[in-house]
């Protein structure tokens, strides 16, 4: 087997792993959204504001603690900022 063929096979194997991870991420993001919607529905009865900047900062800090790389903390903050933004836009069921 040539180096080119070996490299191609490695790329294909990594892509297959990425596809499997993407499937898991979609499932987890949807599961997260369900919990977020349940919290949103419960907040008025708990006399809590829908938006809580302190909670968002706690999420960012917690995610940074979980990080073992290779992503930088700023990368994760950007990703989670997008997740939180979209979560606010998801219509209630």
Q: Which whole number gives the mean pLDDT?
A: 94
- Tally of helical segments: 3
- pLDDT < 50 stretches: none
Question: In sequence order, what are the helices and strands, one letter per element?
Answer: HHH
Q: What percentage of the residues does DSSP assign to strands (E)? A: under 5%
Shape: elongated
Largest sheet geometry: none
Question: Total number of β-strand segments?
Answer: 0
Derived structural class: mainly alpha
Measure the end-to-end span. 54 Å
Radius of gyration equals 19 Å
How much helix is in the residues?
A: over 70%
Task: Give me the secondary-structure topology.
Layout: H1 3-42, H2 53-66, H3 73-89
Helix pairs in contact: 2-3
Detailed description of the structure:
Helix content is 76%, strand content 0%. It is mainly α and 93 residues long. The longest helix has 40 residues. The relative contact order is 0.09.
Brief synopsis:
The protein has 3 helices and no strands.
List keywords for this structure.
elongated, 93 residues, mainly alpha
């Amino acid at each position: 087997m040539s180096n080119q063929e070996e490299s191609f096979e490695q790329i294909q194997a990594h892509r297959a792993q990425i596809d499997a991870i993407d499937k898991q991420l979609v499932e987890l993001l949807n599961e997260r959204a369900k919990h977020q919607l349940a919290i949103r529905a419960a907040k008025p009865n708990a006399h809590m504001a829908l938006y809580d900047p302190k909670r968002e900062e706690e999420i960012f800090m917690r995610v940074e603690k979980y990080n073992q790389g290779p992503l930088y903390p700023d990368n994760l903050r950007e990703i989670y900022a997008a997740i939180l933004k979209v979560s606010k836009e998801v219509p209630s069921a």
